[in-house]
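Entry 14. Ran structure prediction on the chain below.
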Amino acid sequence: MSSVTDIAGHRTSLMRLSEMTSAVLEGVFALTETAKGPAFYKAVDVFSELGRGLRLTIGLDLRLMAFARVADQPVRQGAGTVERAEPATRPEPVERERERDVERDSFPMDPLGRVCALERIITRTPALDPDRKVSAEIIEIKAFLEASGPTPPEPSGSPVSKPTSTLNRPPNRAERRRMRRASG
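Output, C-alpha cells:
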C-alpha cells in the first residue's frame, strides 16, 4: 500500500503532466488556426485527443485527492471495532465513465498510463515538441513514477471495512454501545 507521500508525489507528477499537456494544446491550437485541408483535420484530431487526455489526467488527480482525504482521516478504535470516518461529500465515480476512458484511450487510468498516452501523442506528432523539452519532462516523470511504485487504490473502495447493522448501514451510536457491551 502506498503512503501519503507517494500520493503527494503522484499528484505532483499529474499536475506537471497537466501543465505540459496544456502547453502542447496551445501549440496544436495554433496549428489548427493556420492549417488547411487534411492538415487541419489531423490537427483537430490531435487537439481532441490531447484535450481528452488532459481531462482524464485532471480526473485522475481528483480521484487521488479524494483518496488522500480518506487516507488522512483518523482511525477510531472502539472495543473490537475499527471505523474510518467518511468525508461529508465524496462524489462516487461513475463506473461506465471509467470503462469508456480505458476502452477508447487504451492506456490505464493511473499516472504512468497518462504519461504514456501523452508520450504516444508526442511521438506521433513530433512537430508539437520541436525543442524536445516536453519529451525530456516525460522521461523524468516516467522515471519517478516507475520508481515510486504502484498507484494507490481507487478512492471509492473503503480502506477499512465497517461493521454494519442488520439494516445494511453503519451502526449508530446506540448500536455501537450495545455491541461494545455485548463483546465484554
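Residues 21 and 54 are 6 Å apart (CA to CA). Will compare against last week's run tomorrow.
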